[in-house]
């Protein structure tokens, strides 16, 4: 009410359906953000809305919101009735074994609708896999994004032909054999982005990724192997590489990647034959989170392009890697150290202690501008020595940040010792006059 008079009486409310007056393109955009079941329900609103849902370009179906004997029928009827010239995306989430049996038919209908993006997620309680219908991949020039998740078996006895596929995401799916992997990846001439999640090598021991057009590659492998199987990566156009969790593999062979810009390597150890470091020499940004393993350092190779390095310690032996990278990266501008674990001195092997380098690395003398050490262990003499050395010799340093673990207010003695140590470090390490030295506590 305004001034005691109702809005209706003042003629300020229009009882007409204003939503229906919106442009059809805007209505379809709104409907695309809703669950498909809700979108179909709008057909009862009015004569105008009766067929509007058939033009919505994005469809999503989840079997848990249906009775198991109606899900496939509902999806089937929706796809048959769909009138949009192009199906932008279709998401199918199946949790019932009976519905999974009809997936092949539903996929065939969707492919015939010139589908651009397809997401299939099958989660079954039983240890069973649903075979993906490979026939629909024999010749397709519209599919651009494909995501396959969980209980799906990929069997490609012959080369696929997915001419427009740019992004492929494989989450814990299973291949029938090594040939199927090659036939899928080699049949995607436009593939730029590949994500692979695995937790077993029981289906394929040698996982070969040979894609000339590939620019981004992410591999998560949380399976601890027994020295059997591994990866072969041949992607000459690769710009971004993320590897996480190569544990106990027999090999990891990466061909040269001359266009590599950024790489993240985590939890890689106990590999009998690997050349990971050798393949990263063209990168500009590196993040190395390496578990204890004998790193194979490149022979005669220098990281000439490297500008930013993040090194996370998993072992008391990480000093060797740190100084190798500093010596091999003459243009390094940003150095970040992360110390997640503290190793008791009695557990350290002989020769682990840090020793002062004979020559100051070129990057410290001329290029390093930012130095960050997260979870700096201020009580350890070796870490204090390393921090002091870097601060003393980094002549172009603009900002240095050392953060330590929190100390409770009840440990006043320890708080005092930490303050004393940090003051001593600030006095001993005489960084450049323009350097901003910051001490933080998590």
From TrEMBL:
Name-wise, this protein is: F-box domain
**Start and end residues of each F-box domain:** 16-79
Highest taxon of the source? Eukaryota
Q: What are the leading ranks of the lineage?
A: Eukaryota, Viridiplantae, Streptophyta, Embryophyta, Tracheophyta
Q: Which organism is it from?
A: Arabidopsis thaliana x Arabidopsis arenosa
Coiled-coil segments, which residues?
A: none
User: Which PANTHER family has this protein been placed in?
Assistant: EMB|CAB62440.1-RELATED, F-BOX/RNI SUPERFAMILY PROTEIN-RELATED
């Amino acid at each position: 009410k305004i001034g005691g008079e109702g809005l209706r009486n003042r003629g300020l409310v229009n009882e007409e359906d204003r939503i229906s007056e919106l442009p059809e393109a805007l209505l379809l955009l709104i409907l695309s953000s809703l669950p498909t079941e809700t979108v179909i329900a709008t057909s009862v609103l009015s004569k105008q809305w009766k067929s509007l849902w058939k033009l919505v370009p994005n469809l999503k179906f989840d079997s848990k919101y249906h009775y198991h004997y109606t899900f496939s029928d509902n999806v089937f009827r929706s796809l048959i009735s769909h009138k949009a010239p192009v199906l932008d995306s279709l998401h199918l989430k199946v949790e019932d074994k009976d519905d999974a049996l009809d997936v092949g038919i539903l996929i065939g209908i969707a492919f015939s609708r010139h589908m651009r993006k397809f997401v299939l997620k099958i989660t079954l309680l039983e240890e069973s896999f649903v075979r993906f219908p490979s026939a629909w991949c024999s010749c397709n020039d519209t599919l651009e994004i494909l995501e396959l998740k969980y209980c799906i078996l990929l069997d490609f006895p012959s080369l696929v032909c997915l001419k427009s596929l740019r992004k492929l995401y494989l989450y814990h799916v299973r291949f029938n054999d090594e040939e199927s992997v090659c036939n899928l990846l080699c049949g995607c001439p436009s593939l730029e982005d590949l994500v692979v999640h695995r937790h077993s090598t029981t289906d394929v021991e040698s996982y070969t990724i040979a894609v000339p057009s590939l620019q981004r590659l992410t591999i998560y492998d949380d399976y601890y192997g027994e020295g059997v199987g591994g990866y072969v990566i041949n992607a000459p156009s690769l710009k971004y590489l993320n590897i996480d969790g190569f544990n106990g593999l027999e090999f990891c062979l990466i061909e040269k990647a001359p266009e590599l810009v950024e790489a993240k390597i985590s939890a890689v150890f106990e590999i009998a034959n690997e050349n990971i470091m050798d393949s990263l020499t063209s990168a500009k940004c590196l993040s190395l989170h390496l578990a204890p393993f004998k790193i194979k350092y490149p022979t005669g190779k220098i990281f000439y392009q490297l500008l930013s390095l993040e090194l996370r310690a998993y072992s008391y032996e990480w000093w060797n890697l740190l100084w190798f990278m500093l010596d091999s990266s003459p243009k390094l501008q940003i150095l970040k150290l992360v110390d997640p674990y503290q190793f008791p001195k009695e557990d350290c092997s002989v020769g682990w202690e840090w020793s002062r380098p004979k020559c100051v690395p070129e990057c410290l003398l001329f290029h390093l501008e930012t130095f960050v050490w997260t979870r700096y262990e201020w009580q350890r003499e070796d870490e204090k020595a390393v921090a002091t050395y870097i601060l003393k010799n980094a002549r172009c340093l603009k900002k240095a940040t050392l953060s330590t673990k929190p100390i409770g207010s009840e440990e006043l003695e320890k708080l005092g010792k930490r303050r004393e140590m940090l003051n001593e470090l600030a006095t001993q390490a005489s960084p450049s006059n323009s350097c901003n030295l910051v001490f933080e506590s998590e």
